[in-house]
């Protein structure tokens, strides 16, 4: 699946220009799943995992384990046809939460990672 190029354009043959950077497109969709809260989308109320709201939760090992499970399940559910979740690492420091998702793009088996930090 390819996204549309930005700005949106039509080739001289009348076709739509594809997104030239598939990596950025998939990475953006991973971040979108991570930061979207379930219930936020009207037509897909179960979409997302609500990572953004963890800023207000206690920063401990129980929360970190729950985040690892939730993130892995959400990415598998919503992007499972495009990637395989290789691992989710959640580290908490004093006032910072770091979530790193390692995944493999199914199309070419290229390993990738996304890192999200909250302070």
UniProtKB/TrEMBL annotation:
SUPFAM superfamilies: gpW/gp25-like. It holds the Pfam family GPW_gp25. Residues 23-106 form the IraD/Gp25-like domain. This is IraD/Gp25-like domain-containing protein.
